[in-house]
Amino acid sequence: NGDIDRERLGDIIFNDRDKKKRLDAIVHPRVFERSAALIAEIAASEPDAVVILDIPLLLEADMDRDLAEVIVVYVPEKLQLQRLMARDGIDEEAAMARIRSQIPIEEKRKRATCIIDNSGSRSACRQQALKVLDHLRQKGN
What we know:
The chain is mainly α. Helices cover about 60% and strands about 5% of the residues. The longest helix has 29 residues, at about 15-45.
């Protein structure tokens, strides 16, 4: 029907680096282009706007170069593994393949300018996210 079979695609790209690189080479330039265009539109109409890009592979794609802030939602790898297995209904091997296809979470944490710790409750995570948003708003003024 034209929809992407995300499960099958994940099985391919998380287990074959060359195919992942090929997919990234197709997708990333278009994502960069579209993001830049949308940010320019927002800046033109609302110069004080806070723009948050939700890009799971931001650091892997080197899209953080021109950003004022980099927010990482952090969770220790062990908990990340448990949550991924539960969410996607996959075994540990498949979950680790997905985790290993990314920059290690501790490295992401080091590269962040803002960290939201997601190892606790949703409420605690939400409170941290609101604090980060306040920080971004204050920085813009």
